[in-house]
Amino acid sequence: MTLPRWLARFNRRFINPKAAEGGRWPILVHVGRSSGAVHRTPIGAIPVNGSYVTFVNYGPKTDWLQNVLAAGEATLETGGESVTVTNPRTVPCERGLAMIGPEAEAPPGWVGVEECLIFDRG
Question: What is this structure's pTM?
Answer without folding.
Answer: 0.79
